[in-house]
Amino acid sequence: MKKEIRPDYDLKVIGKNLRELRKKKGLSVEEVCQYLGIASERTIYYYEAGERVAPFDVMFAMMELYDADLEDVTGEKNAKLFYLWRTDEECEEWLRMICRTANPPVKYEDCLNEEGKFIGFNR
């Protein structure tokens, strides 16, 4: 099954939204760094300025910390993640890799709902 080509997202909008989400939760940049295991606060400022893209595991962790979904981060209604995988097996292997490389690692099976769909990390 061929997947659709991903949309482009505005990094400045994403950065602004990340900053607003952090402030809404009452978190300092230092607290976010501690949660993410990031040594430099400047890294968070780069993300919030839209000057750098957070790696997917960092972005997912920030979304969890901020209780945010993709629409909250992108600012786009009905935002969806689209990937270029050629098969569902490639998609599953990528999601398994996310679980293995999480800090701490997470069991893939623990990230699935009752229908077997990936729902994210439960921390």
Report what the structure shows:
With 123 residues, this protein is mostly helical. Helix content is 49%, strand content 0%. It is built from six helices and no strands. InterPro entries: Cro/C1-type_HTH (IPR001387), Lambda_DNA-bd_dom_sf (IPR010982). Pfam families: HTH_31.
Low-confidence stretches: none
Spell the H/E element sequence.
Answer: HHHHHH
Helix content: 40-55%
Biggest sheet overview: none
The domain tally reads 2
In CATH terms, what is the architecture of the largest domain?
Orthogonal Bundle
Element layout with pairings:
Blueprint: H1 11-24, H2 29-36, H3 41-49, H4 56-65, H5 70-74, H6 88-101
Short summary:
This protein has 123 residues and is mainly alpha-helical.
Task: Record keyword descriptors for this entry.
single chain; 123 residues; 2 domains; 49% helix; mainly alpha; 434 Repressor (Amino-terminal Domain)
